[in-house]
Amino acid sequence: MIDPRKILHDVFGFPSFREGQEEIVRAVLAGEDVLAIMPTGAGKSLCYQLPTLAREGLTVVVSPLIALMRDQVAALRHFGIEAGSLNSANDPAENRRVVDAVREKRMRILYASPERLANTGTTEWLARSGVNLLAIDEAHCVSQWGHDFRPEYAMLGEVRQRLGNVQTIALTATADVATRSDIMHRLFEEEPRLFIHGFDRPNLRLAMQAKEHSRRQLFSFLDKHRHESGIVYCSSRDATERLADSLSQAGYRALPYHAGMHQQDRAKNQDIFLQEDGVVMVATVAFGMGIDKPDVRFVAHAALPKSIEAYYQEIGRAGRDGAPADTLTLYGLDDMRLRRLQIEESDAADEQKRVERQRLNALVALCEAPRCRRQTLLAYFGETTEPCGNCDLCIDGVMSFDGTIEAQKILSA
Ligand code: ADP
Ligand code: MG
Ligand code: ZN
């Protein structure tokens, strides 16, 4: 076996592993099945690519998007690694190259769509050629609770068996417990080694407050961040317009953003936010996907976010440059009560309701955390840490407002 660090330097040209990568690489090289949960951009691909190169044989990678496969194959070939893909967009020449390379055992990393692998002819052919490792990327697609459910992903447990019960690594950025347990059950027969890394963003200061005088709470937070770029999330289109107006009157450069605006106005406000300094974007959750502005200095929630996942994604848009960034989330007991009611009154299946109830309970528990908020947050994602020193509870101690009893009444209804 070749030393993983040597491959990291010589093939990929990286000076060091990122958090979590080395342990996962070593577990794969030790022959273990692995479920790796790391945020987007953390470097999950390396966790199956590097072990492949450290030993012999073929790795088959399942990926849901043809565009993603293409990027990865191009990047690997650029590093001088024999790689290819099997998907519906291949031309005959590409197919021939792939088939020949697999037959001659030159192929090292082969990407395949789940639809292709659902075809028994394909898996039998691959099994005959010999597959060493099955890597299932975006493994949350196996779960009905996720936003990305793909029925073909449900077949992958069977594919793994048809490939001779091959060693498997599943990777995803989605950390919630319901999704994780779906991945475990559907893809693995025995529990894989679980790795959860890199969810902490220590430069983000965390704070949550029960709404008392919400406007005053919000304005005093924003006042500490005059002339900085930031986002305020509101729960309705109307609320964004109203708040953007009152902030403008208070001397901020504040702009609304929501899906009900004309496409041109929306694009214009987004451009201003991206290009100018010190703009406050007052937005619904429609804003932010794919926005990569490194110097967003604060994110505020004027109302309870949808879930812990949504909360973390939204505050995660601050401080991408690694410099300190501030967050504040305001929540009201009314928000919680309404949310609870919406779940109970929806036509969703019981199992779905159960999952949504659990998610709401976890969010409320975060709002009412008794000590370090970051510990509570990261524990939800499965990570354990020391008290952070950079959240409201570490800095100010437990808040004076005690909503716990009230909140419990709502949740136990
Ligand atoms: P993920 O799948 O977790 O979202 P990727 O595997 O696409 O992340 O990697 C994100 C980026 O990080 C890629 O450009 C990759 O080359 C880079 N990267 C991965 N590992 C390292 C490392 N150890 N050092 C530097 N860059 C890395
Ligand atoms: Mg990825
Ligand atoms: Zn803390």
How would you sum up the major sheet?
7 strands, parallel
Note the overall shape. elongated
- Flag low-confidence runs: none
Percent range for β-strand residues: 5-15%
Distance linking N and C termini? 58 Å
Strand count: 14
The proportion of residues forming helix, as a percent range, comes to: 40-55%
Query: What is the arithmetic mean of pLDDT?
Result: 92
Computed over alpha carbons, the radius of gyration is 24 Å
Number of helices: 18
Spatial strand arrangement across the major sheet: 3-4-2-5-6-1-7
The computed structural class is alpha/beta
The bound ligands are: adenosine-5'-diphosphate, magnesium ion, zinc ion
